Amino acid sequence: MPIKIPDLLPAKSKLQEENIFVMDESRAFKQDIRPLRILILNLMPLKQQTETHLLRLLGNSPLQIDVGLLHTNTHTSKNTSQDHLKQFYKSIADVKANKYDGLIITGAPIEQLDYESVDYWKELSEIMEWSKTNVTSTLHICWGAMAGLYYHYGLNKYMLPDKISGIFPHTINDPFEKLVSGFDEEFLVPHSRHADVRKEEIEKVPDLKILSESERTGVYIVASTDGKQIFVTGHPEYDALTLKKEYDRDEAAGLDPEIPENYYPNDDPTQMPKLRWRTHSNILISNWLNYYVYQETPYEL
């Protein structure tokens, strides 16, 4: 089934090239169906890139989805035009009275800042508090996952001695959990972060369960017992070249970055990396939409 997005959103043409079923607003208006309403709080600097990443995964579901884009007013984006934000994005003030089936909170490259030092932390806290009563289930990604664990459960993040960057094998802890249904016993996930959350602290919270982890990168998926809060510390939405773009950017800036682990063939940055995690990413998002959103949300929001 299609995802419904604004007619002129730049991601539309890219998704159509990939045969992702995209329906624009003018066509969707003619259909008599109640799609799932999913809101994306996009905190990433390159917002158009992240839009494409997430819409690609949402469009792989058999469910019809009406996607809305949200940004924070208390931060001025340096990498996305104000025209794009004004045309396609809303703020929490615009949607506060609305109900949504699902919310996705993206990552942000700000792990090295204390949460309260982030210029939009107060606004983000307001959004996460609002989500408790206005959203059926919220999916937090990377820094968004760490921020969510801190806001909802008081769990701190810890700086790593070196940045985790690359593609890493993961395992599941309970194959009967709905969110990991259909996962391989071992699967690959991209990570790109400077901070981490500690397993032993999560295990002390009765309302949380660790569903997946990695020997190299630690905890990967955490879920609340009621399924309303899902935390994913990696970047399953990344495409084949996202880590390459990050590496090339840091190399050009003279930061002498480490080569992303298990990413380039033969660890050679002159070779093109291959996409080896899309199956997992598609199943993860489909399971979230099906089991934690579609089957839990009321027909009348």
From TrEMBL:
It is an enzyme of class 2 (transferase). Keywords: Acyltransferase, Transferase. Its EC number is 2.3.1.46. This is Homoserine O-succinyltransferase. It comes from Gracilibacillus pellucidus.
